[in-house]
Amino acid sequence: MRRSEQKAREKARGTVVPRATVDTAITVSHLDVGVTGGGLILDDVSFRLRPGRILALVGESGSGKTTAALACMNHLRAGLELRGGTVELQEGASRFHRNAVDLLTLSERKMRRLRGGTIAYVPQDPALSLNGSLRVGEQIAEVLRAHEFGRNARERDLRVAEVLSEVGLPSDRAYQRRFPHQLSGGQQQRIGIAMAFACRPAVIILDEPTTGLDVATQDLVLKTIYQLTTKHDVAGLYITHDLAVVARIADDVAVMLHGAIVEDGPAEEVLRNPEHPYTRALLDAVPDMRGARDMGGGPAVSPEPGIRAPWDDGRSTASFASQEHTAPVAPSVVADDAAPHVDGAGAARSSGTSAEPGTPEPGTGGDQPPSTGAQGSTAAAAGTDAGGHGVEERPAPAVDGRAGTTAGDGPATGAATPGGNADGVVGSRGGNHPVVSVRGLRMAYGPAVILDGIDLDLAAGQTTMLLGESGSGKTTLSRIVAGLNAGYTGEVLLDGQVLAPSTRRRTTEQRRRIQYVFQSPFSSLNPRRTIGDSLQVPLQMTGGMNREQRRAAVADALDAVRLGRSYIDRRPGELSGGERQRAAVARALVNAPSVLVCDEITSALDVSVQASVIELLRELQHERGLAMLFVTHNIALARHISHKLAVLEKGKLVEYGPTDAVLRNPRHGYTRSLLRHVPTLEEAG
């Protein structure tokens, strides 16, 4: 580096406040905030933000955590008013105020100087927080200019490059000239973090910055936040409803309920030995990777061996290991260097014919030994009768028996018939018949391949979970199954019949049988329609019912999702997030479908609401024998709802098999990487 550049860097750093010498940056004392002319939103809230430490403010929607955080910046949303309390910026915490000052007494002009410079804020949605018409380097430089950071443009340019490097992004000019829409969601969030840390603030407030991010991106963002906070002695306030994230990043925790802090203390102590019933309830609602905890009032669908499954009559899933000797068991997952299974049998399935009985599937012949996942604990032999080990009327455990023989008239090794599929999925209501089959699916936009050679099945009474990072092709695949994305090659079959790519070209009956639940409950329902009117739309499109019959069907659907008929005349704006998502599920169920496609439907929900939605889906699946395709990046949910896992990486199916086998014995490096990034409660302390 040239001497002039080195000197400029030193000057830029010279404008930064030295490492904190104070024990506390901000002290919030007895804060009361209420609705104008109404009741309290915050009631006697007190906490401290200390340099180099992160306080997690935890609570569900409506608990007041965001209101308390914004009060630290002397910002109250419209319709709220301060009723009492102080937010004191301590002496020595800011280069703008040498003496202690109550932020709630400062004018808006003085607060504008502090916001961004002394107290920085990272909002939840990076796409909305960045200016779409400004290049990312210019947006960071704009923050530096606004707070008079650096003596000239050269020093600010050096600081832009430096802070981009600090958040793990390229710092070259070409990258700085990109627009926000040219970046991934994780990159956009790190740009927001770079803007927040650009001026070396004393305090940073982070409002659920990892909501909606996949586990690998979330892990990277959390590491970035933690490293910058500790490295620069920044006091952090992290708002979240995800207690697993709290265990990974927070030093201290404050739990909020109805505007009051009901429990606080060191993260390890609160998470491992909670005292308040509400804290214990939140912890119980967090999904765990072993499936040991009941979530949403019900046990996991695919727990580890030794943990009782909901369909189990006293035997654990480990009891299926005793069947290993009856027949060879095919690989439950795809090996590192193997492509998803596409062979002669697969082609035969697509055309409706059978392959030769002796044709081996990939991995069952040559020098590839048969694999049973993790000591064969969850894969039943293909020779077992379909109903032999499941409790009546309950979903049977997922089995992956591509090789071997079946009892009675079932298919032989490598064969494919309507009664058996390459993956040996056993459904609770449909035997081992796949309701939906995807064969040789490929989709590309020009040279960019989105999906490449996808084969999977959805069986009645079972859930297949699609896992992968953002951009892996999960949502594209789910939309193709539902007929919302055309332009692909390969086939999607419903009960063995090839479906047209677009819903417009599918029959009314085919459209009725496959229903889609969208990610956002806030945008998927028409705000101008009542819930009853929204639920009647699919029935009107299907036809065959008069008005009274449609209203009765709507009432039955609302009863099924545990909302009740009183919601028929309500509008979406009158419902909570969880109630809206239940209404969206009711709309999908009103036509009595066979297949339900759920696209990230729990990603924006509180943990307890998420648990209730998962419980609802499990009950509906048991009652109606639904085949479900569940798209998510939340791997911790896998044991609680899925029978099979399909892992997508850059459009390729790299691993596919029973949930327990994939989680306990992942064969592909990408799957192992995803599992390493999953935050858990056990990380506390």
Automatic annotation (TrEMBL):
CDD domains: ABC_NikE_OppD_transporters. One of its GO terms (biological process) is peptide transport. Pfam families: ABC_tran, oligo_HPY. Residues 342-384, 403-424 have a biased composition (Low complexity). GO terms for molecular function: ATP binding; ATP hydrolysis activity. Residues 291-328, 342-428 are annotated as: Disordered. It comes from the Bacteria. PANTHER family: D,D-DIPEPTIDE TRANSPORT ATP-BINDING PROTEIN DDPF-RELATED, TRANSPORT ATP-BINDING PROTEIN. Residues 26-283, 436-675 form the ABC transporter domain. The keyword Repeat does not apply. This is ATP-binding cassette domain-containing protein. Belongs to the ABC transporter superfamily. InterPro entries: AAA+_ATPase (IPR003593), ABC_transp_ATP-bind (IPR050319), ABC_transporter-like_ATP-bd (IPR003439), ABC_transporter-like_CS (IPR017871), Oligopep_ABC_C (IPR013563), P-loop_NTPase (IPR027417). It comes from Kocuria tytonicola. Residues 316-325 have a biased composition (Polar residues). SUPFAM superfamilies: P-loop containing nucleoside triphosphate hydrolases. Keywords: ATP-binding, Nucleotide-binding, Transport.
